Amino acid sequence: MSQLLQKPKESELSQGIKIVHEVTQENSPLKYVEFKIVDLAPGAKYEETLGKKECCIVALAGKMNVTDKEQTFNNIGTRDSVFDKIPTDSVYVSNDRSFEIEAVSQARIALCYSPSEKQLPTKLIKASDNGIENRGTRNNKRLVHNILPDSDPSANSLLVVEVYTESANWSSYPPHKHDRDHLPEESFLEETYYHELNPRQGFVFQRVYTDDRSLDETMTVENGDVVLVPEGYHPVGVPEGYTSYYLNVMAGPKRIWKFHNDPDHEWILERKS
Ligand SMILES: O=C(O)C[C@@H](O)[C@H](O)C(=O)CO
Prior knowledge:
The chain is an all-beta fold. The chain has one domain (5-270): Jelly Rolls (Sandwich). 1% of the residues lie in helices and 49% in strands. The strands form 6 sheets. It has a 7-stranded antiparallel sheet with strand order 1-23-20-25-15-14-13, with no helix packed on it. It has a 7-stranded antiparallel sheet with strand order 2-3-4-11-6-9-12, with no helix packed on it. The longest helix is centred in the C-terminal third of the chain and has 4 residues, at 267-270. It is globular and about 50 Å long. Bound molecules: ligand LN3RO5KU. The ligand O=C(O)C[C@@H](O)[C@H](O)C(=O)CO is lined by residues 135, 142, 144, 161, 163, 171-172, 191, 234, 248, 259. The site of the ligand O=C(O)C[C@@H](O)[C@H](O)C(=O)CO has 11 residues, from strand 14 and strand 15.
């Protein structure tokens, strides 16, 4: 199996707490992004002390209370499933703090991390704060919820966005990359993709490749999988009949998303619709 594809592996941390994914610097090629998926049963409490990392807690599904021990946000989360296709609530917690999440209902939570030194205020990012974008034409249409974009200065490094791609469409397409710290042309950002499919037996294809093809992997991605993008272009193709959801976490030395399209495929954007 590809080194860039991580399958869900449920491990029970304690009663009512399941770690479904844990992407760390130790088990991945990534240096700027770490990522977890945690499932909580109603009433279960998950606690963490961050150290030199910042964290964006995304209420993927279900309702929860989140506290950093100074501020508490009760009953956050807006949907039963990501496929309700409405934005959700998130909480940003800075480095050298701790947090606790208590599930009000059965909940799935994404924890998005990046190394961070400078403490910033804890912030509730309400569903209504998400910037909503409909991108693309033809079979390149997707719906984007900007949770923590580079225009929002609430974080030191983290960028977080969720994307819906309808059946028989493509996203992160035409293929683009952001793996050179060479502004203003391009920024260096690592990225993770957490994928879900509706219906859940679906699959998508994701290719991760560099110009010289020293990296060129095409993965069959199923419901709940995580794809790691340390570098390279990373398009996603969705088969007919299935809707794709993914949550992207990006981070790098500079908090700016400046991508570079694959010149071979940029003509896709130049067609008249
Ligand atoms: O517009 C899209 O298709 C989504 C992508 O931009 C995705 O968020 C990504 O690749 C970020 O680098």
